[in-house]
Amino acid sequence: MDYIVKTRPAKIDPLFPEINIDPGDVFDFPDDSVELPAIIGKSLPRKDGQEKVTGRTKFGADHNIPGQLYAAVLHSTEAHAVIRKIDTSEAKKIKGVRAVLTGEDCKVRFGHMLVDQPVLAQEKVRYWGEPVAAVAADTLHLAKLAVRKIKVDYEPLPVVETVEDALRADTLVHENWSDYQLLGGCAPVPGTNIVDEFVLVHGDVEKGFREADVVVENELFCSMIQHAPLETHAAIAIADHDNCHIISPAQSPFMIRKIIANAFGYRLDRVRVTCTDIGGAFGCKVEARLEPLCVALARRTKRPVKLVFERHEEFAAALARAGVKFRIKTGATKEGKLTAQQIYIYWDTGAYATFGPRVNYNAGFASNGPYYIPNSFVDGFCLVSNKSLGTAYRGFGITEVAFAHETQMDALANKLGIDPLEFRLKNALRNGQESVAGEVMQDVGISECLEKAAEAVGWYDGPLQWRTAEGKLRGKGIACFIKLTGTPSTTSVMLRMNEDGTVTLLSGSREMGQGVETVLPQLASSVLGIDVERIIMSPVDTAFTPYDKTTTSSRSTFHGGLAVMDAARDMVRQLKALMARHWDCPVEEITYDKGVIRCLFDPEASVDINTSFFTRYLKEEPPIIAVGRYGTKDIFSPPDPDTHQSDRPTIMWMMGAQAAEVEVDPDTGRTKIIRIGAAHDVGRAINPDNCRQQIQGAVLMGVGNALLEEMIYVNGVLVNANMVDYKIPTSMDADFETMVDLVECPHNTGPYGVKGIGEPGMAPTAPAIANAISRACGHQFKSIPVKAEHVLFRE
Amino acid sequence: MDWRDVTVYVNGDEYTKTIPVQMTLAEFLRDELFLTGTKIGCNEGECGACTVILDGVAVNSCLVLAVHADGKNVLTIEGVSEGELHPLQQAFLDAGAVQCGFCTPGMIMTAKALLDRDPAPSREVIRKEIEGNLCRCTGYNRIIDAVEKAALMLQKR
User: Fold this and answer.
1) Contact A734 B99 (CB under 8 A)
2) Which structural domain range is residue B98 located in?
3) CB–CB of A45 and B93 under 8 A?
4) Co-location of B95 and B141 in the same domain
5) In this structure, what is the dihedral angle of CA atoms A388, A390, A391, A392, given to the nearest 10 degrees?
6) How many structural domains compose chain B?
7) What global pTM score does this model have?
8) Looking at CA atoms only, how far is residue B107 from chain A in angstroms?
9) Residue B73 belongs to domain with CATH number
10) pLDDT, tens digit (0-9, with 9 covering 90-100), for A388-428
11) Domain formed by A23-35+489-631, architecture
């Protein structure tokens, strides 16, 4: 393997000089001469599995607090309107109703970047489904009954429904951006619907287009879609004016803590977020959703308040992935070398900012794909509209930009008469090349991913497009992507050795199906040599879990893993000191190997920490408790705000490729997936089967994105707000094989070379399928999803 | 609001409760008996997360009124295993058919009702049978693998 071993300079925390370790030793593993610990690369069954198959796992709605009230919400029936009057008198008359709140009663706004979102609509509503009033009552039945008695008089306003409407700015969704507290990460433009703009400039695109022999231009579109986790949002709050306790399936509890503290004016430490298990999130449980409503009702009633979204509310008033329009222009020489790419991106991020600007930022960096392109210009606009809130969604815009650049790659390859795979390989980034962000790239495994994905669908075994004996249209398509992880970010963990020698790991990384509760103990075990069965992760609660920024951005195994290994080394040092005291020998003479502690010069002095014999040494000794940290602030090179050029915009790039073979029925327009090859550079697979599970599941999510899913708005009203009319894939849509290849091109810093895989599995799926359908039909489709009607009525 | 007395046999235990007539079986299990293993994903019969076995038939418990279960036998995920895991539960773990786990109880109940009446179903039959149980994490094929594995384990017994 050809990778570079890099060590960071040792950093000693002045407060804890003896606890902090020389990070040099954390990174002694990526070396061919060093054998990987046996626990690394082992497909252990998931630790949370037993609880889940027996129904014992407690998700958000499974929790109840004695004395709790039940909440229900009245949602706006208008997309954009002034609220003339709200009549709550009939609702308040119902016995057992304890509070009815409207925007008049609760003037609180919340947000992560921009504090623009009212807990309850203030004076006007900005999207169909926006919470207008909330009720807390003794029973859920009464709360819902009360909601139905509330009368709202609206004065409709013109609806901003498309990015064109938003850009025209005849109607402003927000009259005055300066009314809101700006926390950072975006820069709304006064007098417009632009909440943020991202510009990347690399080289000179005009010069690049002059050098090109062929130039293709396209206007492309991706629909707004839903995360649709099986578990809807849920929360319980217990709150007064000094303290606030939230219980919810939070993906990023520390972020929610901060949002709530800022919104309601609590001191940060007075807000406690207790996490329940998460029944799927995919980005929609990152930020505060039901929590502020529950807090407002709990403060009013002085009782715990529980709120669970019904599925139709999840569609109307939870979160979504923004729709997006691209205008993209790409040039190449006749030999097939890319010379320039120019991309205008218009995100329809919905009524409030949420994480929209971050999607624009991450996707902006990724929008050129994993290619060497000497000249690039990207101008991304995050636009507000009168629609559901577009936010983080498995990849932060990566599928969408991949659809754009991969449509272009096929268009160019077709024009030049070059095989689409060959075309991509000619331009794929290589180690040492400069990216469009101006970074010299390292540990790049994209070419191998492209080759493996193509091989899995028999790319060279026959034509890429043909007609079957039954008259069906077959086609193959390929697509790849590049994705950064949010940088800078920090995390911290604790490892506690219990009195019986087992270890409890405290980490804010949230298990939501991806397997972090299994992988982090594997990494701890790899250093400690303690049987992984004896290491478990503690529940997550901001009251006692060490700080972690978020569980997003495919960062947990990388960041959490490095922090866990840091803590494990600290623990090893403490164990060595413990045994040195016991054997009365200098600590320098103590060795630690796979959990066996020895004294070099005393053959009798040897103990295995996995045996019960060991625990007697712990008795009445100072407890073994270790701390680990990891942060990327020192590695991050802040991008130039005007060009987004940076030596190091991210700690970790993720890349991968997928190829699809599809069959299109020319009579019905229906597309059937025949097979998919997915090759992802995971750096190092700590738990290979877990990686495969994530990729296989993500691929089907991508199939939904490619063929089925879109939130359909008519005059600002979401007309398919249920699981019958909004189709997510069922088992019948999954009747094809996904062949997964885990490419291991180790990262020079990640634990054993790890790179992220949570989001990437979905990134190239829809683009690969769209390219396959286009090839099968001999027609370039310019939007996803590609539904039967698009195939049948193609121009 | 109308109330009614019902006696329901859940996982072999008898429960007599006075409940509102509009209460669904899912609410009865979760809110009256605290059997929260039965999940509610949509409350309108679209997702299958609330599947339980009512007198031998897999049903969406959100679409069945609790009064309809009066005098009947209900099997929920909590009643599937006695001591050690049921072969279906073990097979779900072995096949890697669990991620977030929210759909898992309903999936297992649908699969159990299938295997109870058809001990050796084909992959196509399994695929069709779980069509009404939505899963957003796994991509379904490992769930089908798990049901196949469980069928083999049960046949060997």
Assistant:
1) no
2) 87-156
3) yes
4) yes
5) 120
6) 2
7) 0.96
8) 10
9) 3.10.20.30
10) 999 999 999 999 999 999 999 999 999 999 999 999 999 99
11) 2-Layer Sandwich (3.30)
